[in-house]
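Customer escalation, tier 2.

The customer says the design service returned an amino acid string that "doesn't look like it belongs to this structure." They asked us to rerun it and document both sides in this ticket. The original structure tokens are below, unchanged.
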């Protein structure tokens, strides 16, 4: 059945169908014309994502140079150089070989007859790898309030900062946010999250004693969120090495404690990974996924890394979607990931793609056209 989604600022759960034939999950006011500031903000999102991958894009400039005067006799040399460029950008050997061999087959079968056609085929290959698993890159928040999002990861990956930036982004969309300081191991973690709560204007639940368990803090926060009508509870957790099995077991306790309050919660378990580690992030992701079932990834520090190709490998290897990327140190530099935007990084002359007048911040069965970039979240039954 069709559903209607809109800003959390205007929704309330209802229990019976609306008067029309489609089942409406939320009581939504008539969709107004999108205000100009929203579109301007969305255009800024595109520019941030585009510039955030600049170091990776610089690694790939050789592609344009190779294909500019391409001819069939130089195919092997060109593909060898292309393979090298993809490996340097951390696409990984498996993905690189798959892409290059697909191109080689299409070239010698006569499907690709020019440098421009090869470049477009390369972009299509990357896009297919990012989308073939069918995973949703938007936040899947269900139809009950509050939605619960757990943020997990290793020490130093940027968990708490990512949570704060996500809260800032959602708060600006009118979402009522409650933070939960579930990092009970690191001494300054609660203080850091309290600063983010003050900065974003969000409420926060912290441990009542030094010996409080993370699971009890999260349970208390979700109860408060449920009783006081919050839209989303953002749950911070302690950083832990994926090889520390006792701490990994604690994540299971946290997940169970949340589910006792709201069956089916958490709606999302987002793993924060340091983008500068490149393909070394794969073992971390596998372990966390095996323990708690990761639903999405946040890749941080990609603006300082030339290894952006790891995005493709992570998605292809694990089948877990990248939902957000960190492309800077600013509070607005946590950007929704979009496969179309990423594959355009392979087009060095794609300046025209940096600003798209059709972009919006949310989509659904409204009068708006679905955005090509900057999907913040969507709501499904």
């Amino acid at each position: 059945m069709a559903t209607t989604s809109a800003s959390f600022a205007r929704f309330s759960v209802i229990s019976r169908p609306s008067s029309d034939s489609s089942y409406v999950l939320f009581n939504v006011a008539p969709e107004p014309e999108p205000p100009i500031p929203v579109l301007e903000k969305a255009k800024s999102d595109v520019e941030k994502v585009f510039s955030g991958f600049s170091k990776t894009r610089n690694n790939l400039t050789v592609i344009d140079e190779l294909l500019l005067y391409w001819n069939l006799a130089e195919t092997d040399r060109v593909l060898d150089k292309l393979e090298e460029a993809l490996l340097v950008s951390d696409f990984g050997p498996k993905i690189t070989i798959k892409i290059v061999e697909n191109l080689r087959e299409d070239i010698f079968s006569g499907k690709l007859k020019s440098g421009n056609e090869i470049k477009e085929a390369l972009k299509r290959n990357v896009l297919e790898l990012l989308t073939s698993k069918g995973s949703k890159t938007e936040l899947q928040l269900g139809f009950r309030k509050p939605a619960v999002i757990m943020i997990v990861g290793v020490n130093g990956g940027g968990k708490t900062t990512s949570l704060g930036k996500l809260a800032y982004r959602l708060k600006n969309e009118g979402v009522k946010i409650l933070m939960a300081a579930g990092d009970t191991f690191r001494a300054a973690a609660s203080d850091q999250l309290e600063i983010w709560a003050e900065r974003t204007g969000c409420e926060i639940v912290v441990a009542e004693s030094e010996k409080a368990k993370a699971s009890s803090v999260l349970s208390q926060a979700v109860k408060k969120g449920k009783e006081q009508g919050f839209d989303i509870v953002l749950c911070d957790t302690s950083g832990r090495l994926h090889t520390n099995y006792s701490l990994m077991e604690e994540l299971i306790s946290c997940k169970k404690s949340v589910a006792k309050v709201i069956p089916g919660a958490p709606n999302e378990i987002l793993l924060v990974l340091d983008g500068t580690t490149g393909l070394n992030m794969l073992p971390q992701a596998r372990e966390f996924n095996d323990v708690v079932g990761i639903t999405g990834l946040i890749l941080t520090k990609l603006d300082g890394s030339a290894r952006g190709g790891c995005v493709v490998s992570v998605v292809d290897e694990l089948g877990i979607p990248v939902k957000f990327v960190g492309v800077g140190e600013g509070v607005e530099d946590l950007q929704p990931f979009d496969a179309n935007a990423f594959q355009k990084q392979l087009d060095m002359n794609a300046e025209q793609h940096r600003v798209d007048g059709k972009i919006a911040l949310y989509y659904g069965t409204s009068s708006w056209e679905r955005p090509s970039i900057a999907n913040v979240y969507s709501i499904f039954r």
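Tier 2 assessment: The sequence is consistent with the input. The beta strands are 139-140, 147-153, 177-182, 203-205, 232-237, 268-274, 296-300, 322-326, 334-336, 377-378. The CA atoms of residues 166 and 334 lie 7 Å apart. Sent an explanation to the customer and offered a walkthrough call.
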